[in-house]
UniProtKB/TrEMBL annotation:
Gene Ontology CC terms, in alphabetical order: DNA polymerase III complex
Source domain of life: Bacteria
GO molecular function: DNA binding; DNA-directed DNA polymerase activity
Name of protein: DNA polymerase III subunit delta
Keywords: DNA replication, DNA-directed DNA polymerase, Nucleotidyltransferase, Transferase
InterPro entries: DNA_polIII_delta, P-loop_NTPase
Coiled coil regions in record: none
GO BP terms in the entry: DNA-templated DNA replication
Record organism: Thermodesulfobacterium geofontis
Amino acid sequence: MPIFTPVQTIKLVELAKKNRIAPVYLLIGPENICKEKAKEIYEVLKEKNSLLEVYDLKNKEERQTFLEIKGYQESLFGVRKIYLIFGAENITYEKGEEIIKNLNQRKDLFSWFLISENFNEVHPLYQYAFKNGAIIFFSTKREEDLLESELIMTLKKYGKTMDKNTASLFLSLVGKDYHYFKNELEKLIFYTEDKSIITEEDIWEIVIPSEEDALFYLTDRFFNYGPERAYKVVLNLLDKKIEPPKILGHIYKFFKKMQILKEFLEKHPELAEERRYSNFSKKLQELKDNPIEEIPKIITESHPYALFNIKNQSEKIKDFGFIFEELFKADLAIKRDFRNPGKVFNELFLNIWYKMEKAKN
């Protein structure tokens, strides 16, 4: 079992259930995704009473401890022992040879899960995994593409579909945290049990944005449904004990992102004029791939679907001065005057909305 694609992880899980277990699993790519994928496999081994030992070799002290111990240590009573290694690229070639030597003696007692964002192909453990273990590449695509591939695979498994815009909306709401992505996807599948086609309405009704991406949800309600809907979202965030200054900071960051995006689009009218998300996303990626193109970090770190929506929303605003003025007033009202946060946010949304409408006339 040499090289596998991300979507074939499920095959490795099924093989593990049948006791076809690799001595080495090498997962190459973003650590948060590799970590969760490795867990899907080694949880099967833990159910068979295997023991788990974890080392993060990015940590200097743990790396030193790991390099000083013997390449393996047998567990009691002959049960399998799992070694989960983060930052596996820090394993020296000598240490790799030591591990391989011990695996050749008793590979039935050990399984190594090596996680690395960039593992050298000439490393002894890479060569061993290629011949005797399993290598899974998660780094051949952008992180959001990996999540999109898993989304499509999971929907197919349960006989469901969603269009491109709905999939992009879901991915932009859950962010890049694989664990959160998986939990929200399982919830979405469960609550749409009787439906074969999942719509954007289902997403908005069922999926809870991560705190980091709640801003996207909040501002979408404001621009598409008005100040009252945005106010209700804020009340929900306040009920969840999210501090008012943090919410206000999110709103400020959103409008700052919108302002920067609008300035960026002025330099790229072909992107600003694009009305189809698929074309917008493709053209934006071409700009990102251009080594001489300077793109603000706040744009490169945002999901294309969120940027596409912000682009359309920004057309309603000609000048951002009054927005930042209202945000400054709201900040003083909360921090200095200690006014009721709910009332402050209600006034903030109403004032911005009123001035936006006034500017159109």
